[in-house]
Model the fold of this input.
Amino acid sequence: MTAALSTLGSIAKGEGRGRDKEFLQRLAIEKYDELVTTNQQPLTSSNGDFTDRNISGYTWNLDVEPSSTNNLDTVVVTVTKSGAAKSDPEGKMYGLIYLSPSTTSSTTTAP
Done:
């Protein structure tokens, strides 16, 4: 009986982590889309939370790095629970931003 309850507890915990991971991934994709489509200038690394959407307890981090190709930056949006441990799930969205050499606007592509 104890082994069965322990197994059920493990299954429930795994399902909870799966739901958390899916939610974090959706938040990362939405934030990536928001940041790259509403931006009229080159992106810079930044961070924030989701209080503008009435979602508390989650934070996002935007990392922008130049790639090895001219006029192309790599972009990573990472979403985590506030105060999460390193072993907790996170959501990540990766993409590329093309910076036109003749203007300051950017074009975005997602892999």
About this structure: Residues 2-109 form a domain with the Pantoate--beta-alanine Ligase; Chain: A,domain 2 fold (CATH 3.30.1300).
